[in-house]
Amino acid sequence: DAGVTQSPTHLIKTRGQQVTLRCSPKSGHDTVSWYQQALGQGPQFIFQYYEEEERQRGNFPDRFSGHQFPNYSSELNVNALLLGDSALYLCASSLGTAATYGYTFGSGTRLTVV
Amino acid sequence: KQEVTQIPAALSVPEGENLVLNCSFTDSAIYNLQWFRQDPGKGLTSLLLIQSSQREQTSGRLNASLDKSSGRSTLYIAASQPGDSATYLCAVRPGGGKLIFGQGTELSVKP
Q1: Per-residue tens of pLDDT for chain A, all 114 residues
Q2: Furthest-apart CA pair in chain B: how many Å?
Q3: Is B41 in contact with A55 (Cβ distance < 8 A)?
Q4: What is the SS3 assignment for A40?
Q5: Which of A20, A25, B32, B107 could serve as A93's disulfide partner, Cβ 3.0–4.6 Å?
């Protein structure tokens, strides 16, 4: 049973560029959330997608956007990259939006902005 | 505003010791609390999920307790092993879909 799959694993981008990160949820899950984790910090919630709509958003600027596809996979897009966007980006999936179930996380994408 | 704090930030123990990691949160209005393990540079592995109506959950050598009224949770690790070395994160779900994380406790178990 495949868990949460994220691609790519590592990425280096130049300041001002745009980046797209991808996530496939665990089999049977239909809800995808994205988190940003700076070095030495706990993950920070970016947003959550369910039924192809953004359901909740954290305190991140509009440069961060996302999409969920009919097969439940998701993309995170970041425009106009800043050095401060360098972080580990984590995708988490769950079943529905109720709090009954916990979250399963992927291994993350390490983004370095130079 | 919900805030989650984990103390200590780092802990080093000899192999075989029983240990307790602490997590506190400022707002008791949560749906559940989840403990995770993170190896260096890796993603998060879920250890235990405690619903707000529950007092504790157990999995193998791990036991997590929740005292919602006092805003505290503990993760107890019995008979620690070098393979337990990792960062342990707690996260609360206050509502909606987001999790709010603490900064983690970095555990090192020495052989």
Answers
A1: 579 999 999 999 999 999 999 999 999 999 999 999 999 999 999 999 999 999 999 999 999 999 999 999 999 999 999 999 999 999 999 998 877 788 999 999 999 999
A2: 43
A3: no
A4: coil
A5: A25
Measured between alpha carbons, how far is B37 from B101 in angstroms, rounded to an integer?
A: 12
d(CA B52, CA B66): 8
Around Cβ B58, how many Cβ atoms within 10 Å?
11
Alpha-carbon distance of A38 to A52, in angstroms, equals 27
Task: Give the nearest partner residue to A42 out of B34, B49, B102, using CB atoms.
Answer: B102
Structure tokens at A36: 């940003």
Partner residue opposite A42 with nearest CB, options B42, B43, B104: B104
Separation between Cα atoms, residue A42 and residue B100, nearest integer Å: 9
CB-nearest to A107 from B43, B102, B103 is B43
Pairing mode of beta strands A5-7, A44-50: unpaired
Which class for A80: exposed (0-12), middle (13-18), buried (19 or more C-beta within 10 A)?
exposed
C-alpha of B94 from chain center: 16
